[in-house]
Amino acid sequence: MSSEPTAAVAAAEHAQHLLLGLFLIIASAKLLAEVFERLRQPAVVGEILAGVLIGPYVLNWVQPSEISHTLSEIGVILLLFSVGLETKPAAILQVGKTATIVAVLGVALPFVGGWGLMELRGASDIESMFVGTAMVATSVGITARVLAGMGLLGATSSRIILGAAVIDDVLGLLVLAVVASLAEGSTDFVKIGITAAVSLAFVAGVALLLAPMMTRHAPRLGANVRISHAAFVGSIVLCLGLAVAASWIGVAAIIGAFLAGMAIAEVSEGNHELHDQIRGVTEFMVPFFLVNIGMQLKLDVFADAHVVLLALAITVIAVITKLVGCGIGAWGLGLRGAAQVGMGMVPRGEVGIVVAQIGLSMGVISAELFGVVLFMAVATTLIAPPFLKPLFAGTKA
Amino acid sequence: MSSEPTAAVAAAEHAQHLLLGLFLIIASAKLLAEVFERLRQPAVVGEILAGVLIGPYVLNWVQPSEISHTLSEIGVILLLFSVGLETKPAAILQVGKTATIVAVLGVALPFVGGWGLMELRGASDIESMFVGTAMVATSVGITARVLAGMGLLGATSSRIILGAAVIDDVLGLLVLAVVASLAEGSTDFVKIGITAAVSLAFVAGVALLLAPMMTRHAPRLGANVRISHAAFVGSIVLCLGLAVAASWIGVAAIIGAFLAGMAIAEVSEGNHELHDQIRGVTEFMVPFFLVNIGMQLKLDVFADAHVVLLALAITVIAVITKLVGCGIGAWGLGLRGAAQVGMGMVPRGEVGIVVAQIGLSMGVISAELFGVVLFMAVATTLIAPPFLKPLFAGTKA
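YS: structure for the whole thing
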């Protein structure tokens, strides 16, 4: 019976290890956020760097796991939900035309840029297309957090960025579907067409039907519910429900969460209790998302100078193509507005990382190329916020 | 390359499966909570029954996993934190003497009762002691939630229950340490003594030193922090930090979380924004704890009539010994007060389940006995709330 106490000790150590991980993630994220705020840099960069610091490639205090991945996924869903909560459908519809042009150009240029560079280096067609795809989708979470921190989510450029990011996410997932189909040697154009149509119907359905319905009926429904904090509970259930619905119809879950927030944006306006409750759960979960991004920056593939050069080249192309593509799309706002929109669309973050992970798991990109795409995703995320603050300084909310 | 799309599909299905699980847990918990509120039964029973319903032994929509276990653990930690937040140290010290007597009698009687019944049935000494131990520790979360829902956390009986549950948890873990040591054939009395002394010092240190320090210095500290929602972030970091510290010194993590809440109870009074933010994250996470309890009720071991009879006998003894033991301890409050305290201490919930899991993993209790203890833990949790509401009706807050 000498091995028996080990099981009891192991269970206690597992729980302790879990709690220590949670503590280290939140405490380090907020400590570096505070340092960055004092350096007049965006807190979000500090939270990502906290992940790099405590992650497996520097201090190795916390390792990515199924748990950290899950908490990160809940974090990004709640983040997009709270971003949606600040986004009234009418405000996005006002900027719908510009947002669409921004999104289309911001998808086309980075894809061509990434694909072209890889083809010039002699990579296979599939590898080239996967790198191009990883450079397509903007991770609006980072930009939204910076803008929310400045109280500028309502500015015209912000609404164009948020609207374009929604459209761009849908376009990016369509590109991924096409490239993944090509990687298996088939192209089912009917299936791709159906996914596109359903996605658009989902977005339009929430913006044009669900949002007005919520505004009209939610207060009466809420008054008939007996459980406490019914508005908050209802909001969370709607958020998770639309996230599940989105992933069912083949769109990213975060789009569903964003749309859920948008659906109740108007009816929840001025409900401070509800907003504080949502802010509580968001503030608790979002650090897991940001730290998880930082933890995935693998440092040892960069011992090879060729990998470093390629990573830098891909990052430069990722920044320039998005900046120029989206900037041209938003030219009507003037030079400053175009620069705001272009820079706001630069971060690729977790969407690029997800594409890279799919490519790796399909065996169509190498470990080094995975490192390069990861570098690009994190670097674009780190590059944008320091430029966003001065670009948006003095902008009216 | 025909297996490649499978990987991409598997990743998407994994994320979708996770989100669907989260949605089902929260939605079913809140739906049954609403049903129970309308039946004038405690919502908490509905949330546990939701777990039984969607769990592997009835509908099998959601299976317990490392993820659900982790979310449940975060849930119970935040629950005890928010309970601590309603508990001012001065109020617990006022009831310290009664709480200590309630805790000691509420540990001794159930242990002797469970141990005695098993010995009479001819079980081994170790098996008997493990069942006794699983019947010791009160799971105050359930009672606290019922009382919080009635706005009665400040009542004398409530404060005795909360205080006694803290002491009783410490005593219960000491009993577990002794029994686990005996199970491996050794008794290190020095080590047990040290654990006891350190635990007591931890509780006293937070109540007598940290709480007054927070009240004096926290507002000035908070004013110097630049990150947004500093009070909330600081509270969460303190909660996780003390939970880790507690588990390091060998006390249950939930005690650390409870003490963290207690430490800032006074300084946070009247800060509605902070309270709403903490309520948001608590309301989001606690359903995972309650549903997880329900999901662990394994139904198929109860096909054997002997197991059913034993489970009922153990449950009856668990209820009576706690009711009588704690009731005698609180006799000074009169019959109604004694009944309130006794019934409030009846739920064993997750603490009994943890003891059973340790016994099972140490190989000293059988799968059937594990089922019996699980039944007792869930049944005591279900039995108490319907009695608590009428017992506390009309009590002054």
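YS: worth flagging: Chain B touches chain A through 67 residues (CB under 8 Å).
IM: good catch. Also The two ends of chain B are 68 Å apart (CA to CA).
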